[in-house]
UniProtKB/TrEMBL annotation:
Lineage, opening ranks: Eukaryota, Fungi, Dikarya, Basidiomycota, Ustilaginomycotina
Primary location class: nucleus
Keyword annotations from UniProtKB, A to Z: Coiled coil, Nucleus
Family listed: Belongs to the THOC5 family.
Name of the protein in its database record: Uncharacterized protein
Length: 116
């Protein structure tokens, strides 16, 4: 029986060593999984933040497009008449090529006319 136990001792030591190695590998693997999980969670959070920001920007764009300005109700001279009678500084090529600048120039001309 003693010789039998003596022959099992090296095998038992090998099994314990293998058990420790498996436990260490398992611990390392769990650490790697935890790191990857943290990366995925961080990426998911960034994605959610970007999706929220996108929806907010889309909402702002929609509100801007739906915005009704009082300037839309002001009756201005039509464009051809404006181009014919407005002062030269209000109808430069740069102003006429930009819709926003053109609207500002037409409003400015309307104000000048009303003040006279």
């Amino acid at each position: 029986a003693t010789t039998y136990l003596a022959s099992l001792t090296p095998i038992l030591a090998q099994l314990r060593a293998l058990g420790r190695r498996v436990a260490e590998d398992n611990k390392r693997s769990k650490g790697k999984v935890a790191e990857r999980r943290a990366e995925v969670d961080e990426s998911r959070l960034r994605l959610q933040n970007l999706e929220y920001e996108r929806s907010q920007l889309e909402g702002e764009i929609r509100r801007c497009k739906e915005f009704v300005s009082v300037f839309q109700d002001i009756e201005l001279r039509d464009l051809s008449e404006f181009q014919a009678v407005a002062p030269e500084e209000l109808r430069t090529e740069q102003i006429l090529s930009d819709p926003h600048s053109l609207m500002l120039a037409r409003l400015e001309y309307e104000l000048i006319e009303r003040q006279q």
